[in-house]
Design brief:
This protein is mainly β. The chain has 3 domains: 50 residues, no CATH class; 215 residues, Alpha-Beta Complex (Sulfite Oxidase, Chain A, domain 2); 121 residues, Immunoglobulin-like (Sandwich). It is 8% helix and 33% strand. Strand 8 and strand 9 form a beta hairpin. The radius of gyration is 26 Å and the shape is globular.
Length: 425
Amino acid sequence: MAASVKVAVDFGRADIVEPFVRHVSRRHFLKQTKVAIGGSVALSAAAYLPDAFAASDPTKQQGGPARGYGDRASYEHSARLITPVGHDTTTASYTPLQDLHGSITPSSLHYERHHAGVPQIEPKAHRLLIHGLVERPLEFTMSELQRFPAVSRVHFLECSGNSLTEWAKPTGKTVQETHGLTSCSEWTGVLLASVLKECGIKPSAAWVLAEGADGARMTRSLPLDKCMDDVILAYAQNGEMLRPEQGYPLRLIVPGWEGSISVKWLCRLKVVEQPYQTREETSKYTDLMPDGTARQFTFVMEAKSVITFPSSGQTLPGPGFYEIRGLAWSGHGRVTRVDVSVDGSANWAEARLQDPVLPMSHTRFYFPWRWDGTAVVIASRCVDETGYQQPTREALQAVRGVNSFYHYNGIQCWRISPGGAVANV
């Protein structure tokens, strides 16, 4: 019996992902390789037969030596976008969402927000002090914390200033600029509740003050109920120890809540009766309302989504089939539905969600679409398990005005021009 080869025939455009797959005999395939398929492309046997991949000089295919710590391919150049916020050590770095696949963010591309640079901390010398309204004030070394029962959970983090440029009007030039202050990782550590129980919580306790060991001494107040629920004292990310930019050797992970409350380089927890009213929860991380008042302790990051392909700054090479792809998440739990519009929000259709759909985690969505080459506006909207639906920019402005800085989760629209260029609208 003649050997058979599997041939994927693309009808004339490498950018139209709609292959016709068939099995043909090797003899028939060789005979047909010079024939134009659909009048638009000719196939070469050398492009598909195994022998075509053999080098004329095998020594030229020999790679370099194995490495103790792996590097990505030299052809891959995706990187975080780093922007100064204040002085030289106050920076933000934005995850390149447009380049990612799946729902997990590589540790090397996880967004960052630094108020005073990145401290270099010796883990053997690091201590976590727990005191205040506890029966037994205790100080833990890293090795002692790692003796507690470990948990590993996938959660997103999002800076409450993510998408702040979009409050009044479309501004960001790429999805990395508009939405890049969110990332998703598997976090490993010990439940904070386990450690607090070891210290013994006094009846009058209601809040916990968390403090970092960075130069800014980042401090945030957390309700005790949240601390006793799902907060993690994390020492590892995506299977390895935390990176310095992510709080090495110890940080908080507060699932679903604004990123600044997941204090990095954690060194102290003080159990108290009331919130401490620190700088980061009075003059910062509050929401200015139209009447001049400010909302405080708006911890939860509401349901949000964004199309990452095609997105602003990209260009479609021509009409044809495309798979619209994006990310959705909610601080209230699981994403239950993502709708996509390809006609300026006049009509919506449900996208496919990639399993597993985890609570307070990025969820990848996909939507098949054939573009006819005319100008269109595409958008996505997220619905979470509470029934909350991601609002439009106009709906947010009607309630909160345009002076807010934090917690923007409006529907993001991208316009595709007849030439294929994608822009923020």
